[in-house]
Amino acid sequence: MKSHHILAAILVVSAAVGCKEAPHSHNAREYTAMTLQPTSRQLSSNYSATIRGKQDIDIRPKVSGYITDINVKEGSRVTKGQTMFVIDQTTYESELQTAIANVNVAKAAVAASELTLNSKEQLFNQKIISAYDLQMARTTLERDKAQLAQAQANETQARNNFNYTLVKSPVDGVVGSLPFRVGTLVSPNDATPLTTVSDNSEMYVYFSMTESMVLSLTRQFGSLENVLQNMPDLQLQLSDGSIYPELGRIEAISGIIDQSTGAISVRAKFPNRQRLLLSGGSGNVILPHEQEGCIVIPQSATFEVQDKIYAYKYTSGTAKAHIINVFEISNGKEYVVNSGMAAGDTLVVEGVGILKDGSKLAIKKVLE
User: Fold this and answer.
1) Can you tell me the distance from the alpha carbon of 243 to that of 235, in angstroms, rounded to the nearest whole number?
2) Of 104, 162, 202, 204, which one has the greatest count of Cβ atoms within 10 A?
3) In 3D, which of 298, 316, 315 has the Cα closest to residue 352?
């Protein structure tokens, strides 16, 4: 009987405790939120880019022959006018000497014809010879002068051919690959060049913008010329993820839209004092731009499900999940909201990982 009284007492106490705690189980948890307001941010857009030397010049022989000497190495620097390859000079030297001799013979023939003409003129004036003989002397001189001119032209061609046996760099730059070796027979008709010299004192970086982006910039600044003048300096992210230390400038925007991609080609120029950039490389151009009146939220206030980004909007004591379209700011901490949230909305910024759509909650603190 006593045990029955003890059990009844325990049940009464338990019921009393349960009645006290029941209201707390329905109390909404408190979270921190922020009221969204328009602001401005420095944003950046990334574009895949290819890197080219200011000039990439194929070096080709102008005469045929065997390579007798190679004076450069792959990757070495050359200056304008520096001899890179020597092609067998024997034949061309012989042709040059023959051409020089032919010029001397032609000069002697002209000199003799001039003497003959002078003599004929005196004899004609003395009426010793006929006008026909005088005219023949003049014709002979003209013929000899023409033969001299032809011989001089042949000498010039032979001298050029001889000089072409020394293949020189047309610009300052860096030597590319060397597919041929000493002893190789080469000619101007070869499909493969002797090498390529890249003028990399400055580098051209090519990337593409969408048609809508270019149109937006044109409307903003009035013309493509004004766009080029007002565009900010660019950064270049290299293939290893590092940022190139020099800034670049956009200097050309194509006036033609690529029909296959709908994009417009853009060329930027970067200095290359340290010769860090190599022709044929790749990277990403980082284009900064100021955006006014945008909605900025912390990335920590969002979550992702199946490649969609969500955030909780606080409405009438309830957390409601909304899909948002965002642009990531380069600081890695914030998003610019393109759609899904608007100025004046209350964004839940705390406990996003444990909330569920429709959860009841209270706001303990509102951030500005």
Assistant:
1) 7
2) 204
3) 298
Q: Cα–Cα distance between 219 and 242 in angstroms, integer?
A: 34
Q: Given the structure tokens 């002797």, which residue do they identify? A: 194
Q: From 319, 328, 273, 272, select the one nearest 297 (Cα to Cα).
A: 328
Residue 9 has pLDDT above 60, yes or no: no
Q: Enter the pTM of the model.
A: 0.59
Biggest CA–CA distance in the chain, Å, is 177
Angle in degrees, CA 12, 13, 15, rounded to 5: 65
Letter string b/e over residues 310-341, b meaning 16 or more CB atoms within 10 A of that residue's CB: bbbbbeeeebebbebebbebeeeebbbbeebb
- pLDDT tens for residues 110-166? 999 999 999 999 999 999 999 999 999 999 999 999 999 999 999 999 999 999 999
- Side-chain-facing half-sphere of 73: CA atoms under 13 Å: 1
| Alpha-carbon gap, residue 57 to 80, rounded angstroms | 12
Enumerate the β-bridge partners of residue 317: none
**Separation of alpha carbons 102 and 319, rounded Å:** 101
Sheet holding 185-186, edge to edge: 166-168, 83-87, 65-70, 185-186
Please report the sign of the dihedral spanned by the C-alpha atoms of residue 108, residue 110, residue 113, residue 114.
negative
Hey, is 314 helix, strand or coil? strand
- Cα 113 to Cα 108, 134, 144, 330: the distances in Å are 9, 12, 7, 86
User: Rounded distance, CA 67 to CA 60, Å?
Assistant: 12
Question: Measured between alpha carbons, how far is 48 from 239 in angstroms, rounded to an integer?
Answer: 10
Distance of CA 126 to the CA centre of its chain: 82
User: Rounded CA gap, 27 and 29, in Å?
Assistant: 7
